[in-house]
Amino acid sequence: MPAVAWFLVSLVVAGSPPSVAQSSPARSADVQAVAPGVWWLPGRFERERQPDGNSLILQGPQGIVIVDSGRHAEHTQALLDWVRASGQPLRAVVNSHWHLDHLGGNAMLRAAAPAMRAYAAPAVRDAVRRRMPESAIDLERMKADPQIDEATRRMVEIDLALYARREALEPDVLIEGPAQDLTLAGRPLRVGVAFGVSGGDLWLFDPASGTLAVGDFVTLPVPFFDTACPERWRASLSELASMPFERVVPGHGPIMNRAEFDRYRAAYDRLLACAGSARAASECSDGWLADLGPMLPAGGERGAQGMLKYYLEERLRAEPARTAADCAAS
Ligand SMILES: [Zn+2]
Fold first, then answer.
1. Structural domain of residue 236, as residue ranges?
2. Residue 24, in any domain of the structure
3. How close is the Cα of 277 to the center of ligand 1, in Å?
4. Would you say 94 and 119 are in contact if contact means Cβ atoms under 8 Å apart?
5. 189 domain-assigned
6. How many domains does the chain have?
7. What is the DSSP string of 94-121?
8. CA gap 181, 260 in Å, rounded
9. Does the keyword Signal apply (predicted)?
10. What's the 8 CA to ligand 1 centre distance in angstroms?
11. What is the whole-number distance in angstroms between the Cα of residue 50 and the centre of ligand 1?
12. Does residue 151 lie in a domain region?
């Protein structure tokens, strides 16, 4: 299966993890306070549904900044409802990367706040212009397959609807080069691009609260290797570890303190080492579960094992040419 259908393929093959006590759609009431002027909306990852990434909300003297806009309309609407209730204007969205669970909501945000500016790495613009049209062809083919089950058809249709609005997903301002200070809505922030997940991934640090948003460099229940360059990813985790953060907002999963981030990073290193060894895939995924221990969402073990088996067999071990291509692209 070509890289363009990315996450959907791993979900269909490996099965998404069971939902964890989350069955009603995201609401603005799900937005939780993190620190003064900082909130987050946890992204959901439920059975027979693609994920929404976590969204971070920052308040500046001139309005609101959102980091990552979700995929499903319910997630993005919850953000918009929260912004409306705050009485502040939405000034900016920053996208960690081009995967639709972090970028797809931009079209809705833009429609609701036409003066908003979108900030992202060049890989986002390139994906909107090149990867998405190719992926749309791929998804149309999946949709036309009479064998397709209803849940997969629904997932395909949601992504196709986002691709149809892809011009609204393009960034207005590209972030590239060395890490830089960037003031958004009057709030001083620091942003930079690191590599390994999707061809150029943006991190954002809020010095006032010590909050570091890292997109999909950190994800639970497992790292999503669909478009990854695993070795560069490992190097980026070490770069992120050197930053003076108090907490990390991952792309998926709960907010982590420094000890939890370090534990995730060590587990990632051991997973890669295991993938490069002759050990059985089941041994590598058992090692991952043991390394993460209580950090894994309750009931998420089976889903995590299924996804890791898929990634080990189809990505980390079986497709060196594809990984080499993703590494070259990043
Ligand atoms: Zn994601």
1. 3-262
2. yes
3. 27
4. yes
5. yes
6. 1
7. E-S-SSHHHHTTHHHHHHH-TT-EEEE-
8. 27
9. yes
10. 12
11. 9
12. yes
